[in-house]
Amino acid sequence: MIAIKCTYSNGDTSTTDINGTLESAKDYFLNQWFNFGDTEEKPHDDMQQCIKVELI
Mind listing the pLDDT tens digit for each residue in 17-41? Predict the structure, then answer.
């Protein structure tokens, strides 16, 4: 298992663990769109594209 940090088009980041390699994590996350909205804090869609994946 590896730990990665994803950077999104708005500058936000997230970290997660993934079973795989850095290359497989990049294949899965890079250039994909994720919805960080639809919460009490952001009750609307907030679509952000993953623009960078790093090993941490």
Answer: 999 999 999 999 999 999 988 778 7
